[in-house]
TrEMBL record:
Family statement: Belongs to the nitroreductase family.
Cofactor(s) for this UniProt protein: FMN
Protein name as annotated: Nitroreductase
Species the sequence originates in: Leptospira ellinghausenii
Domain Nitroreductase: 21-206
Superkingdom field: Bacteria
Keyword Manganese: no
Claim: Ribonucleoprotein is one of the keywords in the record: no
UniProt xrefs under Pfam families: Nitroreductase (PF00881)
Alphabetical keyword list: Flavoprotein, FMN, Oxidoreductase
A GO MF label: oxidoreductase activity
Length: 230
């Protein structure tokens, strides 16, 4: 299936179609998402698998004035402070992964009209994470669990469920590790207990029409390079 043949604004008819056409959306229409759609997405996502049905996630869905306040606080903190995530961000990658990551950065900056050498423009683009790329709703995923490899797998399964269910509804998403960069800001603004770790988040909303960024579909390696049959 050619993902370019399906509009990112259309609902999907199958899991395969949602999987093949989903990609990170970085420009949104401000139109609010009806509450019944958000309820449908997140209630269904609770069917995600987890180790011994431990369900290590909690979900915080933020819209309206509270979202705007959180965006203001996160952006201000990001300008003044270094990230303090509660989960360690990866620092080393295999050489083939480094190449894919570098190529992705170059392509996104190119589509956004940013010169790779323009650090100020790159920094401003990065800061857009904290205003949720203009999405009407932000989502934060937290956990009270001790974080380990298997809890990470469970949270990843949950996140993928949300992304595909949102795509089924004709919504766009952007999963963001950056939204776990300043956990104290999130905890304070949402009134979360100290033991609730802020892992990451995502922006969700209706993709902005006529956006070059939204038409950019991240490439993937050839299946023959990554999949083996025995």
């Amino acid at each position: 299936m050619n993902p370019e043949l399906i509009s990112i604004h259309e609902v999907t008819k199958s899991v395969s179609e949602a999987m093949n056409t989903r990609h990170s959306i970085r420009e949104y229409d401000p139109k609010p998402i009806p509450e019944e759609i958000l309820n449908r997405i997140f209630e269904t996502s609770l069917r995600s698998p987890s180790w011994k049905n431990s369900q290590p996630w909690k979900v915080h869905i933020v819209s309206g004035a509270k979202k705007e306040l959180l965006a203001e606080k996160l952006t201000k903190t990001a300008k003044e402070s270094a990230p303090t995530p509660e989960t360690s961000w990866p620092e080393s990658y295999p050489s083939d992964a480094k190449k894919r990551m570098f190529d992705l950065g170059m392509k996104i900056y190119g589509v956004a009209g940013i010169d790779r050498k323009d650090k100020e423009a790159r920094d401003q683009f990065m800061l857009r994470n904290f205003s949720f790329f203009g999405a009407p709703t932000a989502v934060f995923i937290t956990s009270k669990f001790d974080l380990n490899f298997f809890v990470g797998i469970d949270l990843g399964c949950f996140l993928q469920s949300v992304l595909l269910l949102a795509r089924e509804e004709g919504l766009g998403t952007c999963p963001q590790a950056a939204l776990g960069a300043f956990p104290e800001v999130v905890r304070e603004t949402l009134g979360l207990p100290k033991e609730e770790k802020v892992i990451m988040g995502l922006s969700i909303g209706y993709p902005k029409a006529d956006s070059d960024l939204n038409r950019f579909h991240t490439p993937r390696e050839e299946s023959s390079d990554l999949i083996r049959f025995y």
